[in-house]
Structure prediction request, 326 residues.
Amino acid sequence: MSTNEQQQLQRKQTVLQKSERAAKDMSRRMVCGGLAGCIAKTATNPLERIKMLSQTGEHGLKTDSVMGLYRSIIQNEGVIGLWAGNGANLLRIFPAKAVVFASNDMYQGIFRQLTHTPEHQKLHSAYAFFAGGLAGMSATACTYPLDFARGRISGKLASHARKKEYKGIWTTILLTVRDEGALALYKGVTPTLLGALPYEGIKFGTVGVLEKLFPLPVDVPVDQQQPQTSAAQPLRKMIFGGIGGVMAGLITYPNDTVRRLLQLQGSRGTNVQYAGYFDCVKKTYQAEGIGRFYRGILINIIRMAPNAAVQFGSYELLKQLTAKYF
Prediction:
């Protein structure tokens, strides 16, 4: 074998090894992201349930107070009612967060190549924003019907006068398809896609900005970090992630309210119908004013900080724990 042939063979082997390592690393990041999302969502689902009932108004109470909704859930559905929709959420959140975290890293890698930014330097905040936004849209496109099912399960409250129609993931999907057709599973997809770009973009972008403002003493890749630096990273990501989650939740909350209202239209026990996104905004504003779009925002702020903090912190910790196995 000639020298040129040997060099070509070595180059091919190097490319194959890099591709194999990249595939393994992507798989690891997806699993870590999915598990981090499941941990965070399960821990904060009671707050999410109260927030969604406040958003949709499908609870039959005269007040939207947090304690009033909490007591009503316990009285009508028991303690388990606080986790209504969590099964659909976990089925959705594992692939969704796996795609979000893994694709965010992938998009950041692409932007690094395009801007010639080395790994040890933080990516510009604008690119971090777009990477997060594209990651959010990618995840939404893959998992929306499960988010729709969760919206219907969590967005309605059972009572003595009204039984709970949507009790499980498959029951909800089958009832929806039977009553409204298969396309009904994509009601509210427009505001969800529109909201995914700024929501995930603001969240990841805020984390990127904070990492640049408060860098670690040794800003190097995880596998090269000193033990004390490595141990500080998950806690740091938890704090930055919590701040990013609150910022994203505040800014995109009105859009989230619109998508929940669109998800519930046409469901059993709901009579309001909308022609689309802008019709929903118009009718909601005309009926109840601007404050209707912010109903439940207080509980959302309380929920978002620990939810995002646990997501980012768990993801970073799981990446560190699994790094030596891949």
User: Anything to note?
Assistant: The two ends are 34 Å apart (CA to CA). The chain has a mean pLDDT of 82. Residues 235 and 313 are 6 Å apart (CA to CA).
